[in-house]
Amino acid sequence: MTPDDMSSPTHDEIREYLHRQMLSSVSHDLKTPLATIIGSLEVMTMLYDRLSEEKRRSLISSALTEAFRLDYFITNILDMAKFEADAVRPRLEAARLGQMIQDAQARLGPLKTRGELRVTAAGRDELTTDPMLGARAIGLVLHNAYKFGGRKAGRTEDNPLIEVSYGVANGEGFVRIRDHGEGIPPEMQTAVFDKYMRLQKADQQNAGTGLGLTICQSIMRLLDGRIEVSNHPDGGAVFTLYYPDKTRG
Questions:
Q1: Which stretches of the chain are DSSP H helices?
Q2: What is the mean pLDDT of the chain?
Q3: pTM (2 decimals)?
Q4: Cβ atoms within 10 Å, residue 126
């Protein structure tokens, strides 16, 4: 049953249904990478001497990739709980947008090897903000772009091109992240920040709890900033994060 199948459902009934669906999705998203990790390590343990070096490397790579994916899921779940409990406070200090982008990319693990990231600076990038939270927000959008935004000039979903530009002007910093995927329909551009959004899609082949953009929006609000989404005229989605410069208080 879906929310549309209910007979005049109340708001609370719909949210309860979606909550149950989220728990089911989280369970699936945690068990799937864990099963791959366990399976790869079991094969290595039982058949190590019979495996070729290439096969050993493949099994280790699969386990490591899924371990990073599991860590990403769990981190998002814990972060969502912290934001809903109002337990996160920004720590303002001098920061550089370029360094925040580098930090965000470094935390992507094996995912960052799946495509190409092109970064362009537009003027100065110094400002006062929370660099850890700021980098976390960038990383969540980059993760989304690597995962869903990969087609251009013969590229595949496993070889995405991500374009990032950044700078500081008029008292605020910006980080603009463009992918080359299918874009986001205008009527869905607000809904992508809803933590229940993914659960209402018919296509469930892409694993993930769907919390990344919700957490990103929570971070930007905490920093008194914002995140905006649009479609590029030549295709693909564009997410722009705006960070107010707190240098002057």
A1: 11-47, 53-84, 97-106, 131-148, 212-222
A2: 83
A3: 0.80
A4: 14
